[in-house]
Amino acid sequence: MGSKKRIFLSVFIFFLVFVSGVLGFKIFGGQDWSLLDSLYMTVITISTVGYEEVLDLSANPGARIFVVAFIVLCLGTITFALSSITAFIVEGELKNIIWRKKMDRKISKLKNHLIVCGSDETARTIIEELILTQRDFVVIDPSQEKIDRLSSLGDFMHIIGDSAEDEVLLSAGIKKAKGIILSLSTDEENLFVTLSARSLNPDIRIVSKAIDLKSDNKMRKAGADSVVSPTFIGGMRMVSEMVRPAVVSFLDMMLRERKRVFRFEEVLIEKGSPFIGKTLDECRIREKVGAILVAIKDKESGEYDFNPSPQTEIKREDTLIFIASPEMIQQLEKKI
Q1: Lowest mean per-residue pLDDT among 9-18, 59-68, 111-120, 147-156
Q2: Is pLDDT of 47 > 80?
Q3: Residue 81: CATH number of its domain
Q4: How distant is the alpha carbon of residue 1 from its chain centre?
Q5: 245-256 vs 230-243: helix crossing angle, rounded to 10
Q6: What contacts 70, CB < 8 A, 6 or more positions away?
Q7: Residues 149, 193: one domain?
Q8: Are strands 179-182 and 114-117 parallel, antiparallel or unpaired?
Q9: Residue 281: exposure state from Cβ atoms within 10 A (0-12, 13-18, ≥19)
Q10: Number of domains comprising the chain
Q11: pLDDT at 311
Q12: Which of 54, 166, 181, 246 is the most buried (most CB within 10 A)?
């Protein structure tokens, strides 16, 4: 039995012992004892204070036997309660409750964060990447044991619960979240959570894992913005290793380097940006933050301009794609 349950059980037993004491003293005291007298005797007996009895019970053998049994019962109850409280503190459950409340407060303050549902190997890679790139995110999984294993990757916020439940998604801040990544064990679970997430936040970006390639269309109809198949990605990776190994080695270097983290990152040019209407040469992005601009996605046409010339003009809601570190992107977003 968990220490928390033992505390609740000890409180319940204490209540029964207290009521039994009041009734017992009332029965054995007879008409000479009021309910207040019985209550008084119960309190001084349980607390082991040892004040004088209200009335002399020495002439009533049955009453004395009851008092002896009641004292032994009180001592057993107090011992059990103290051991339960001690176990609750020593086993760290009190610390966990305080820590949980602190984490819940931190999660409630998040905005434009990501939510990761699942704890499998795919989710492990996702969490590791989010930690490396310094993103705000919350992990949801029903197993504390699995979350503990993932904690070796680093510190991250999490919620123990079923992501299929709306209350759990709401506690993870889905109303204010930027996106949700689904890496649950079955396509059915991913599909169900996709529907729930879309209904709770129509504007959230949903990326779901699909174990069966045929599930792609169903996921998108349910509201997923993007569907990723580990099987398909794995096959593409294997053939790339064969036909373009140098490119794969370069990307591996970017993804696996731990001392300096570089990724393909994107920055949206929003209203009021000082970059709007300027050419790349005028913005001098590389000189200011060191990020390498590799492409610009045009908002209207959706087409990419790879390796744009210095004379390329930046328009509102263009998406700039860089090879950069998280620190470079943070500096760039401040300037934009």
Answers
A1: 59-68
A2: no
A3: 1.10.287.70
A4: 25
A5: 120
A6: 17, 20, 21, 24, 45
A7: yes
A8: parallel
A9: exposed
A10: 3
A11: 92
A12: 181
